[in-house]
Amino acid sequence: MMQATLAQAPQSLSALLANPRGDSAEWHRNVGHAYYRAGEIQSTLDHLQKAIRLEPTSERYYLDLGEVLARNNAREAVVIVFEAARKALPESFRIQSALGVAYLNMRDYDKAKQSFTDLIRTKPGDEMGYQLLAECHDITQDWENTGKIAERLRALNPNNGNGWYYGATAAYGIGRQNGESLRTAETQVRRALELAPGDWRPPLLLGKLLADSRRDREAAVMLKNAIALKSEDSKTYYILGQVLKRLGLAKESADAFQTYEKARATHAANQRTLLLDIK
Known about the structure:
- It is a single chain.
- The radius of gyration is 22 Å and the shape is globular.
- The protein has helices at residues 13-18, 25-37, 41-54, 59-71, 75-88, 93-105, 109-122, 127-139, 143-156, 161-178, 183-195, 201-212, 216-229, 234-246, 250-269.
- Among the domains are: 1-124, Serine Threonine Protein Phosphatase 5, Tetratricopeptide repeat (Alpha Horseshoe); 216-268, no CATH class.
- It is built from 15 helices and no strands.
- The protein is mainly alpha-helical and 279 residues long.
């Protein structure tokens, strides 16, 4: 969603505090980065907000603040940040993208779709708008529009794995819904795998597709590949547990279901609310 810079700030907190520059937005940004590395989130937020107040038309300060809040699951606050940023920077593609993603994370799908549609209208040659809109349609299981946007993305760049992945999710959704062949979905998701071997979503989708077709040994391999790329996604363990159970691997299946429950609990425990005051 955003270009992460928080963990890369070179200056130490003690050096920065020894030379205070309260009227400098950049100084407050650097202090905020240093506090972030020290794990002091509230101080991070305080200084990043001061940077915004000093330079309210600098997009990177909003992106920094939104990143900290997003990493701490303060979803409502992220929306507040980027709505304020849009008012200050109505022409910023990055801010509009970030706001759309913030709406998406809040499950405000109508606003997210509008944000991403506006991105495409503003920059019809930029792949990001299509990827984000396809993701929104995919989440809401609007398979027809997912497929249409995926086709436009493939036309724009046939080597972008997202165009093939979202085409596959659309074909998979429509195929399951109508009881039709999943061959097109399998062909497209395998192409996505070739183009983006580091993306955990294609092996997960292929694993689900293979599991639906009762090709369980192949499915188990793909699902384990997905877990190797993203170990915290709970639903992958659940599907793997089902597959392993059908294969008669009772202990491995039980372990997968146990990990599924732990991953779900961890996700719930990470939900936090942080107060934000941008004026």
